[in-house]
Amino acid sequence: MASLARLVRPLVVGHLVLATAAVAQAAPAAAEEQTPLAGLVARLLASDPGGGRRKAVERIAHGPWSFDEVYRELREHRSYAADVKVGLVEGSHSVGGLTHPYLLVVPRSYTPTRRYPVRVHLHGAVDRNAEAQIPQLRRPERFLSEDRITILPAAWSESRWWQASQVENVTGILRTVKRTYNVDENRVSLMGISDGGTGTWYFAFRCPTPWASYLSFIGSPSVLANPSSGTQGAIFLVNLAGKSILAINGKTDTLYPAEALRPAMEAFRKAGADVTFEVEPGGHDTEWWPRRAGQIDAFVDAHPRDPLPDRVAWATDRTDRAKRSSWVVIDELDQAAPKKLAVLGDEPRHSGGVSVVRLGNTVEAVAIGVRRYRLLLSPEKFDFGRDVVVSTNARESFRGRVEPSLYALLEWAAEDVDRAMLFAAQLEIVVPRALSPVEPR
To answer: Please, what is the average pLDDT of the chain?
Structure first.
């Protein structure tokens, strides 16, 4: 792994590499001068976007540590407090002025030296008011386990699972848990019942980066295509490519009969999803759960996350959110491009997608309706001592050396709080308008 001149922040755009000198910072206080790297990294990972995070990034970037030292600290030397709350832990997360309560179920035998899988459970009946949802979070008995941490968030009529507020809420809660407890980031699964099962599909379509697997029980992705459901954002089939999904529905379910869902499941498989679809003889209930518990556990255990997959396909209808999947970020859509992306429900006014395949230091991309996209480069996948080559729609977009950047490393580490997914640089690619690609696969 290459070292970095810490006072230089590189930005790579197409064939052009720009190096901008960092703004000189005021000398830190004497007490901060003596703060070890581990303490500064802890402050960084505890920070939220804003001045506190910028200060934490600058403090490390202007310190005496090499890129390699900071990278090792982030990836291997994280430490966690032993005096944390265990058992049933109440919390809340504010999004857009709405307070979202949640519960954690933390093993009473929790030890900070062990990495714990996490399960996030989305409940049903989201059309109730906020007060009615609180009792649903008071029945955690089925989630008790000494082998994992469970997150029980809340949704209601003002903030349903298929709205942007819940993406921010659930991922924010997960980020808080990862700051506090020693989480196995590659074994974080998302599951839900009824409306929660439908919400699980929504997250798979719109927010896939943190999750290893998705489990939808008596839910329906078709709800997301219904204009009356209030779904926020377009639902692109290509976004399920590479996702591991277990869906269980009832044969006599009067809301979402299993047979009515089979065409959607086949369409998702054709889009590249790894879908296991099971049918229970009952209706809209989960009486089968005790009998299926072993299968559910086995499915979760058999599908850890690949944090840096060699193939990524991602489409979106906006770039202020739902713009990223793993190491691919869409920054600007080409509003003049024709619509060619398959969607569930109404087609959005503007949309675009990028599909990438990595082989060593070479990336081949297909872009539709996209003007600019970024590749987040990890030292675990790219050799920074050799040229990186990117082609877009069969034409070379970039060729050259990319220097690791402490700024990129620190900013993305603070955003993701994820030891398995650290990035040393970000490469911005501009897509010429003249190219006429085919749909991402």
So the answer is: 89
